Amino acid sequence: MNKSNKIILTTAVLAALAACATSPTGRKQLDLVSDQQAAQAGDQSFQQIKKQTPVDQNPAANAYAECVVKALSVATGAPRGGGKWVVTVFKDDKTVNAFALPGGHVSVYTGIFKVAKTPGELAAVLGHEMGHVQAGHGAERISDQEATAVGVDLAALLAGIDQSSTKGQATMAALGVGAQVGVLLPFSRAQESEADKLGTQYMSEAGWDPHEALDLWRNMMSSNQGAPPQLLSDHPADANRLQALQQQLPGDMQRYQAAKGAGRNPDCTPPGG
């Protein structure tokens, strides 16, 4: 084992452990990536997805998604790191999905309209996705991956494993699986729960009744048969998600009533509505 390499990797691990930030809900995060770096990665990812999936040219669908995001932006503010929210609707009726990326790209697949049946339910989805951005989850995931990679390399050096050998590759694969289950997935579930919390706050502050978030996840439960168990999923189980949302409902209702008192009444029309 090369002593200098061991020292370098050990130093890198210690530096990673020292690089901590705090999320909007007070959770500790690993912070090895700047908002600007995360935004650059988000833009690159978006451009790749855009090459693979056709953009929906339906004006009504685009106006609908943009209306919901504009209303939510009153609560979220500008995307973390600056810039503005940019909305894209992808024509894919079979994919029930939406996402937001560091840098402000908010993307909606037309298949989500089958599950998010009202503007409030769509606001719950997009508020959740925008919450990922505002909480810096993209940068955190990249940081976690970098720290895991350094840790695996260090473990190999300490064990004297030749990573170029067949045995070494198998050992690294085993360590990788262990790292994924033991480190990355629990963090990812924490991020999803945090985005749920932020998403319902945002939709409430924008003027949508947070009860619609509960309706959304009930719809998800009825359309999500055969989903993987919570332990091996990066999303909280739907029943746990509903329970958590119900627990924070009193605070979200206060935000909703304050928004209504401030005259926030989002009026977004679904395509075909």
Task: Give a description of the structure.
With 273 residues, the protein is mainly α. The chain has one domain (3-261). Helices cover 62% and strands 7% of the residues. It is built from 9 helices and 5 strands. The chain has helices at 3-18, 35-52, 59-76, 119-134, 137-159, 166-206, 211-223, 238-247, 249-261; strands at 20-22, 28-30, 86-90, 98-101, 105-109. It has a 3-stranded mixed sheet, with helices on both faces. It has a two-stranded antiparallel ribbon with strand order 1-2. Strand 4 (98-101) and strand 5 (105-109) form a beta hairpin. Helix 1 (3-18) runs antiparallel to helix 5 (137-159) and helix 5 (137-159) runs antiparallel to helix 6 (166-206).
Short account of what is shown:
This protein has 273 residues and is mostly helical. The chain is 62% helix and 7% strand.
